[in-house]
Structures are given as C-alpha cells and as structure tokens.
Amino acid sequence: MIERVLRVYPAAYRQAHGDEIAATYREMTAGEPWGSRLREGAGLAAYGLRMRLGSAAAKPAARVLGLAYPFVLAASAAACGLHLLRWYAGFAASPAPAWAQLRADVSGAWGALLAASLLVFTGAAAALAGRWRTGLPCTVAGLLSFSAAAVASGPAFGDPVVTPAATALAAAVLLACPPDRRLERGAAGPAGAAGAAIALVVVPRAVLDAHVLPWVSTDYGCWPLLGLGAVGVVLTWRHGLRGGRALAAAALACPPLLADACLTARGDATAVAGLAVVLLAVVVLIPLAGHLGRARRTSR
Q1: Which of 33, 107, 161, 283 is most buried, judging by how many CB atoms fall within 10 Å of its CB?
Q2: Which residues contact 38 (CB under 8 A, 6 or more apart)?
Q3: Which has the closest alpha carbon to 60: 239, 242, 199?
Q4: Number of C-beta neighbours around residue 26 at 10 A
Q5: Helix 188-209 vs helix 222-239: angle between axes, to the nearest 10 degrees?
Q6: CA-based angle 121:123:275, to the nearest 5?
Q7: DSSP string, the chain
Q8: Whether this model's pTM surpasses 0.90
Q9: Cβ contacts of 180 within 8 Å, gap of 6 or more
Q10: CA distances from 80 to 31, 72, 115, 131, 222 (A)
Q11: What are the tens digits of pLDDT across the range 8-48?
C-alpha cells in the first residue's frame, strides 16, 4: 500500500525521501491491525496531497487554513444545528402522531440528512474541544454524507447544487489543514471563539423557533453570517491579525452558512439586500479591526 501512497507526493520529494518514508511506515505498522495501517497510510497520503496543493505547514496557505480551521468547524456545526432546529420545530408543531412523524422523517434522504447533521454537530464539538483525532473524521464524514444526501433529495431539500458544494468545500478545507496547525500553541483562543460562534448562531435561532419573541418571524439567514462575522472581527482585533489573511479565513469558513442564507433569502429583494449589506460590512470591518488591533498592541 505504501507504494501507492508515495505516488501522491511530488516527484522530486518522492525521489529524495520516498525510501525513508516507506521504511518508517513499515516499521511503525509492523504487526498492527489493518485499520491502523490504513489510518497511517491515509495520514501520509493527506500530507502528500497538501504538498502538491501548496498547503504544507510552512506555506502561507497553511497559516490561512490553520486560522480558518476552527471557524469552518463552527460554521459547519452551526449550519447543521440550524437544520436540526428546523426539523425539531416542525416536529413539535405538527399535530400528527410522534411515531408517524419519526417513521417518515428517518426514512430515505431526509433521514440521512438528519443523521449527517447530528454527526457534523457532535464531531465539530469534539474537535473544538481538542479531540480532533476523533472529531475531525466524524465531521468530514458527516459533511460528505450531508452533501450526498442533499443531492439525492433534490429540490425537496433546498438547492441540490449550492448546499452540497458548500458542505463538500468545508470538508476539503478541514482535510487540507496541516495537523500541526490544528495543534499549534495558542489554538485554545480560536477554538473558544469558534464555540462562541456556534452558540451565537444557534441559540437565537432556537429562541425564535420557540416563539419567545413573537414579533420576529425569521432572520432571512442573515443572522448566522452576522454572528460569525462579529466573532471574526473581535478575534482579528484582539490578536491584531492581518486583514487579508483574516478575510481569506472568513471566506473559507462561511460557505455552509452562506448557502443556507442564500436559499432562505432567494426571491426576496429585501432579504437579498440585507444579506449583501452584512457581507459588505464583514469585508470592511475585518481589515479595519486588524489594523486597530495591531495599533493597540504597538502602543503598549
């Protein structure tokens, strides 16, 4: 298997280090079960792919991916949390017998969508809590399953192109992030901010679905993006991040929530205008927050 894995690496790197990688792999997996050998091989293949794409740990792209990584987890968890909330709100409001609803909801593509949403939400929470070796595979598997189920369900579940593409892109970003960027020192801050972003998106939506605020009927998908953007602005200001890098990370993080917002706002001119204003505000405020944050740190 290791010979096939080595083909993923760039030719020059493979010629220089291929024998060493193969020998190390065989030494590490000698006597190990098939699952362990497959996991180590997958890790080596992923690193080779990152080298080909220019996202190895020392590259500028890796720094952007490392910054985006916790917020891609947060956006994926928040988007799937919103799907679960919508399902539960409809389930609770329906006059049909509970067993009949469950039997209908857990069958076919809808059942797969609900299961994938739950897998993404729990996996992302585990990864943000530091258990990324378990949480990351669960999140990626859930995102890819969600994408496939959204295609299979067709127009019955939003858009069969935009939603699957957004979830597949989120999975690709998570896989492309180098492992040492996930574990780098100081990651607790971004992980905590990402957890706050999930709460900031999901809790207000749960309040609306519970009809605690009866004069508000919907957020047209703008609030999740606004919540994620607000957390990004605060984090950029606190750490004095470069605006371009922070904007690139935000662009990588937002597709799951942006797809949901586009579907919600589609056909409503006011909602589309509000969504455009939110996105423009984030684009302007993130670089400004980074500049102010660097000025604050310099003046100390």
Answers
A1: 283
A2: 1
A3: 242
A4: 11
A5: 160
A6: 40
A7: -HHHHHTTS-HHHHHHHHHHHHHHHHHHHTT--HHHHHHHHHHHHHHHHHHHHT-STTSHHHHHHHHHHHHHHHHHHHHHHHHHHHHHHHHHH--S-HHHHHHHHTSHHHHHHHHHHHHHHHHHHHHHTT-HHHHHHHHHHHHHHHHHHHHHHGGGSS-TTHHHHHHHHHHHHHHHS-HHHHS-TTTHHHHHHHHHHHHHHHHHHHHHHTTSSTT----TTHHHHHHHHHHHHHHHHHHT--HHHHHHHHHHHSHHHHHHHHHHHTT-HHHHHHHHHHHHHHHHHHHHHHHHHHHHHHH-
A8: no
A9: 57
A10: 40, 12, 10, 20, 16
A11: 877 877 888 888 888 888 888 887 787 777 777 777 777 77
61, burial (CB in 10 Å: exposed 0-12, middle 13-18, buried 19+): middle
187: its two tokens: 């990651």
Per-residue pLDDT tens for 204-217? 888 777 776 665 65
Question: Residue 152 is encoded by which pair of tokens?
Answer: 């299979």
User: What is the number of other CB atoms lying within 10 angstroms of the CB of residue 92?
Assistant: 11
> Nearest CA to 56 among 13, 18, 3?
13
